[in-house]
Protein 1
Amino acid sequence: MLRPTYPPTDTYPVGMTPAATATPAASTTPATGPALRITPAAVATGGAAVLVLGAVLVSLLLAVAVTAGSLAVLAVVLRSLRDGGGRHRH
């Protein structure tokens, strides 16, 4: 139903011919390998960086957990001191 209609391929104005395409000159530079080479040393360095980053993040998480635990114990002790008054002394 709605099919596009394309003009004929030779619809250049009279007196105008399509320009010839110029072929590029051959390159004299030698072909080089990929810009980024993955060597075993690079893989080992990346792996070491991942391990160090993981250790740092785990130690930070452990520090937060220890701090939260100590604050919870402190809250219980302070609550006990506040609510207990001096009733349990003999």
Protein 2
Amino acid sequence: MKKRLGDYIKEYSVRNKENQDIPVYSVTNTEGFCQDYFGKEVASKDKSTYKIVPQGYFAYNPSRINVGSVDWQRTQERVIVSPLYNVFSVSDKLDQQYLYYYLKSDFALQRIKAVATGSVRDNLKLKMLYEFPINIPELSSQKNIVELLDKIKKIEGLKKAELDYFDTLVKARFVEMFEKESDQWHHKKLVECCDNKNDIKCGPFGSQLHVEDYQNIGVPVYGIPEVNSGFKSNPKLYISQQKAEELSAYSLIDGDVAVSRKGNVGQAALFYDSLKNGIIHSDVLRVRLNKQIMDPFFLIGELHFSQSIRNQVKQASNGAIMPGINVTKLKQIVVDIPPLAIQKEFSGFIQQVEKSKVAIQKSLDETQILFQSLMQKYFG
């Protein structure tokens, strides 16, 4: 039987009236309690109205809890947070970490979004939180549940660290193989590494592809999110087969390098044959290389890790209201051309790393599915 959460938590509204030098913290949805982002700016302020959060107490920003920005304070004897925050204590019959997981569960987040009010942003008052229903088993059972969920989160963290390690390894390998001897390589403009000047192309603009052309299914339009994920995320935009044929000049084929031209400018990803045929979005540039001159994986390495290339991309992106690079400027970027055999050695290394990452990602996905199923079981 579910209990009323308000019977187990109580508001704590003690201010830092004497303006003591207590560490200022924020609560984020990813880091939980962390040193306040604004640093020196906050340090110079009068903090007498800030709320004190003793160790073991919870705090949340009423307009950010809807995205999971809630945590209990476990780092210091006491910290202070913005006056906007709600702070509350927890009954000794309710384990803090158990409540933390509950507040992070899909059930709680959906309920927060359903009951929160506010004209601009959802705003969850503490009295609303009091009315939330929660399963509260015996304290020993709560601790067993927490122990299991903590273990799974630790495994998840280790797998994410492995993926980060492989990314670092790729950069280190690139620097080792190419950066120290870059003066010895041949150099070409990027367009000279293609068979045709139109092999470097920007996606279709509004005159060719209108908003009304987009649909929920069909031929994918690959944009910046897909490039940033290395084509691991599902496309959000689609067009009809007929429209795709009209725009076939903007197609992606196996071995093409897609480059983000806005936002994270220069982020690149390889398009491969197991992906669904599609076209590039107007925010994406396509580079179709002559593979007897440059290996696609090597170009991606240059765009990501070569300081010289990154500086050229940055310089070419300046001058606009929103930083971005166009086709003409990308074509003129000067790239290193090491012997093809060395490029292919790097390419082989990348492909082995990618195989390892795929296995780790699969294991990570399974771990996250297990975690979510347990969260549903305990808090759904």
